[in-house]
Amino acid sequence: MHSTIQWAASVAAAILAALACRGPSGSAAARRPDTVSREDAAPEETARQAADAEASARRDAGEADEATFEAEAEASTPPARERGDGFRSFRAGRYRTGRANGHAPRAPVLLWEHPGGGEIRAQPVVAPDGTVGVAALGGTIAGVRPDGTRKWSFEPGDRIYSTSFVDDEGTIYFGADTDILYALEPDGRTKWTIHPAEDTEKPELHDVDTAPILRGGVGFVGAGLYLYAFDRRGTVRWRTATGNKVFSSPALLPDGTIVAGSQDDKLWALRPAGAVRWTYQMAADVDGSPAIDELLENIYVGADDGRVHAVSFDGKRRWTVDAGGFVRGGIAVDARGRVYVTTFGPTARLLALDPEGGWVRWTVDAGSGPTAEFGIRSSPVVDPDGVVLFGAPGGFVRAVSPDGAELWTFRAPADVDAGPILADA
Question: Which of 25, 223, 247, 254 could form a disulfide with 287 if both were Cys (CB 3.0 to 4.6 A apart)?
Answer without folding.
Answer: 247
